[in-house]
Amino acid sequence: MSTKNAQKEQKKESLITTHWGDDATIHGWTAIPNSLLMLQGDLGIGSTEMCILLNILMHQWPESGKSISFPSIGTIASRIGVSKRTIQRGVSNLEALGILTRYQSTRNDPLTNGANIFDSTPLKEYLNKKAKGITISNSNKKKERGNFEISMLLDSFLSHTCVLAPPERPWGRTGRLSEAGSLCNVSNTQKPPLRLFPFPHHCPSGQ
Fold first, then answer.
1. How many Cβ atoms sit within 10 Å of the Cβ of residue 51?
2. Chain-wide mean pLDDT for the chain?
3. What is the DSSP letter of 82?
4. I need a surface site. Which of 40, 79, 103, 163 has the fewest CB within 10 A?
5. At 124, is the secondary structure helix, strand, or coil?
């Protein structure tokens, strides 16, 4: 590895460690392109298959220049918490989708010891071909931004408002309003109109 690449890798590791913490990254980390997650539906990858794929990608070493790894079926099954048969079906599905190639090694190989060799080259080719076509429409961006702004306004409103049932119409236990301005608990399904008391107005106690 060149000095320049080593410095870039060290900087990347430092940023990830700072973000996740030293203990969380003690076993390393796995870098995947966001396009894989964004195109999961287009690829037809199910949730179980995605977990299997991430475990396979976890064992790849980009510095080798190859897109292969050879984790055992048993190891992947143990991590995900499913049977070996489930992993075998998932791998077969990934092969059928054309995004993973599996080769069988020999037990005489000291590196693989007879384990399956997984090659994700087809996945890389697909992502490089389709990633540029991923677009997020302006309407979706505006909708997401609008939902966020509404949520922020609602949080601000509730944090400055207390809500109580009218005392002249008792309808179950209202209790007292917490200092945080949380809603009063009620037990009846017959609920009359509520009254709002903006802070710093004194909120009346429950009956």
1. 18
2. 76
3. S
4. 103
5. helix
